[in-house]
Structures are given as C-alpha cells and as structure tokens.
Specification:
A zinc finger (CR-type) spans 58-143. GO terms for molecular function: Hsp70 protein binding; unfolded protein binding; zinc ion binding. It comes from Chenopodium quinoa. Keywords: Metal-binding, Repeat, Zinc, Zinc-finger. One of its GO terms (biological process) is protein folding. With 300 residues, this protein is mainly beta. Among the domains are: 1-40, no CATH class; 42-72 and 138-184, HSP40/DNAj peptide-binding domain (Sandwich), CATH 2.60.260; 189-274, Urease metallochaperone UreE, N-terminal domain (HSP40/DNAj peptide-binding domain, Sandwich), CATH 2.60.260. It contains four helices and 19 strands. It has helices spanning 17-27, 52-57, 204-209, 265-274, and strands at 39-40, 44-50, 59-70, 85-86, 95-102, 108-114, 123-124, 139-150, 159-162, 172-173, 177-183, 189-192, 195-203, 212-216, 222-226, 231-234, 240-241, 244-248, 251-258. The strands form eight sheets. Strands 12-13-19-16 form a four-stranded mixed sheet. The chain has a three-stranded mixed sheet with strand order 2-11-9. Strands 1-10 form a two-stranded parallel ribbon. It is elongated and about 100 Å long. The structure holds zinc ion (2 copies). One zinc ion (ZN) binds at residues 71, 73-74, 131, 133-134.
C-alpha cells in the first residue's frame, strides 16, 4: 500500500515500486497537468511459451500485438472542437434504470444498467462535431511489435513486464503488458532450479561390457558420457543460473538398465561362470535392546 490518503488505489505486489509510484501519482492527480482524477488501467497478461533450450541459452521473441491508443486527432475528447453534451438518455449519469416487474401496488423490481445511448459515458456528441478519426470512440487501434528478452536461467511462471503498454483509455493510467513464461515439456531433460536431470536407458549387455554415449546438450554441444554406476553428476553442465551469465548448476545423468525378461538354464550357467558368485541367502536377524531410562520432569 502507498501513502495516498485521497484515493483507494492499492499497490500491486507484482510490479516494481517505481511503476507503482508513477501510477499512484497519476491516479492521485499528482502527475496530471489537467488535474483530472485518473483511474488505474487493467494490466494485460499473456502466456509466452518457451522451450527449455530458450531458457538455457536465452532468446529474444518478437511479438506483434494490437492495442487501443488515445486518438491523436481529438486527444480522446470525442469531438473535433471538444464539444460534448450531457446524454439525454441518462441525464449524464451513464446509467439507466429499467423496471423489470411490478410486485405490488407500491413495490417494483428494477435493474440498473449502463446507458445504451452513450455506452455509459454520460456524454453524447452531435454527428457534425464527431471526430472523423476515431468516430467518437476516443481511441484507435495500433499495431505494435514488442521484443521480449528471455534471459538465461529464467523459470517457468516468471513474469516479464512492459510498463504502460496495455490499452490506453481517456482519464486512465495505462496498465502494463505482462508476459508469463510457460516452459514446454522436453523429452529426456528435466529441470529443477539450477539442476538438469537427464535419463538414459541402456541394455544389460552395454551395462556389463562398458559403454559410452554422446549426449547432445540443450545448446547443441555434444558431450561424451561414460556409463558408470546408476547415476553420474557433472559440474557446470546443469541449468544456466538467472542473472549469473557465466554460471551453471549440476547435471545429473540417470542410467536405467533394461534387464532381459528371462534366461534359459544354459545362459544362467554361462553367466554364473563369468560373474562374481551370488551372495548366500542366510537371513540374519539382529535384536536390539534399548535400555529403559526414567526422566524426572520438573514443572515450573
Ligand atoms: Zn447516456
Ligand atoms: Zn478522435
């Protein structure tokens, strides 16, 4: 929350303080030369799909958006000359009341709705004064290309904000465009913070006879990996770390060995002849006795 006593605008935790302060100033009239109260505009939130590769190496995405901007010809005043009149349909209130039904001699049910003649603005304009550019809509559509910089190491769900780039409207502090990163699933690789997990399946023969394979990393580099027991940890080959461009976490490679469903007796004999002997199956049970200790508890 900010310290403005004259309005009910509240701080938005998702936006940095500087932006909130500029909004608050404008909402409270502090930054407005016209001295009119301005209401805060809506933020526009877009999901932005990115691959794990994008988050590993960083990327820039160009996105074309169309948005409303204040009509430059009439600067949002509807008419060429700035002449507008109170709407006769609603007497300038912007709202109309219609009676739905009579419930009794002195009771009736009524409903309030925005005035259809002035679209709830309370103003109408004579056709001959109407702005030819925006047809009295106060705003026109504009196409804009935004360059979204996805930095190395950013995360699924992280927000990238373009302050004041949402739809413009008269007497409104323009909201922000917010992109929320959505990481697409990636076969083989899983990411957890700064760690990367990679799963590799190999046959029993390869596991027994020694094995190497080429792992193509997220940036296209090829790493020669030698099979070792169950999993392998490699320093500095994990995920890029956000805002530390030269640092990476660990990569963990998990090996899954595919065992054969069954062996025939001859194969079992042959394997037993070359493999280390099986451990004996004798069951050892260890009993342990915990001595009983009594505590004296003092109550204060
Ligand atoms: Zn009206
Ligand atoms: Zn206009």
């Amino acid at each position: 929350m900010h310290g403005c006593g004259s309005c009910e605008c509240s701080g938005d935790p998702g936006i940095n303080d500087a932006i909130v302060n500029s909004k608050v100033e404008a909402v409270c009239g502090g930054g407005s030369s016209r001295g009119r109260r301005q209401r805060p505009g809506e933020d526009v939130v877009h999901p932005l799909k990115v691959s794990l590769e994008d988050l590993f190496t960083g990327t820039t995405k160009k996105l074309s958006l169309s948005r409303n901007v204040i009509c430059l010809k009439c600067t949002g005043k509807v008419s060429k000359s700035g002449v507008s009149m109170k709407c006769s349909g609603c007497q300038g209130t912007g709202m109309k009341v219609s009676i739905i039904r009579h419930l009794g001699p002195s009771m009736r049910q009524q409903m309030q709705h925005p005035c259809n003649e002035c679209k709830g603005t309370g103003e109408t304009i004579n056709d001959k004064y109407r702005c030819p550019q925006c047809k009295g809509e106060k705003v026109v559509q504009e196409k804009k290309v935004l360059e979204v910089v996805v930095e190395k190491g950013m995360q699924h769900g992280q927000k990238i904000t373009f302050p004041g780039e949402a739809d413009e409207a008269p007497d409104t502090v323009t909201g922000d465009i917010v992109f929320v990163l959505e990481q697409k699933d990636r076969p083989k690789f899983k990411r957890k913070g700064e760690y990367l997990f990679y799963e590799h399946t190999l046959s029993l023969t390869k596991a027994l006879c020694g094995f190497r394979f080429v792992l193509t990393h997220l940036d296209g580099r090829q790493l020669l990996i030698k099979y070792s027991n169950q999993f392998k940890a490699i320093d500095d080959e994990g995920m890029s770390i956000y805002q530390r461009p030269f640092m990476k976490g660990k990569m963990y490679i998990y090996f899954t060995v595919e065992f054969a469903d069954s062996f025939n007796p001859d194969q079992v004999k042959a394997l037993e002849a070359i493999l280390p002997p099986k451990p004996s199956m004798a069951l050892t049970v260890v009993f342990s006795f915990v001595p009983w200790v009594e505590f004296e508890v003092e109550f204060c």
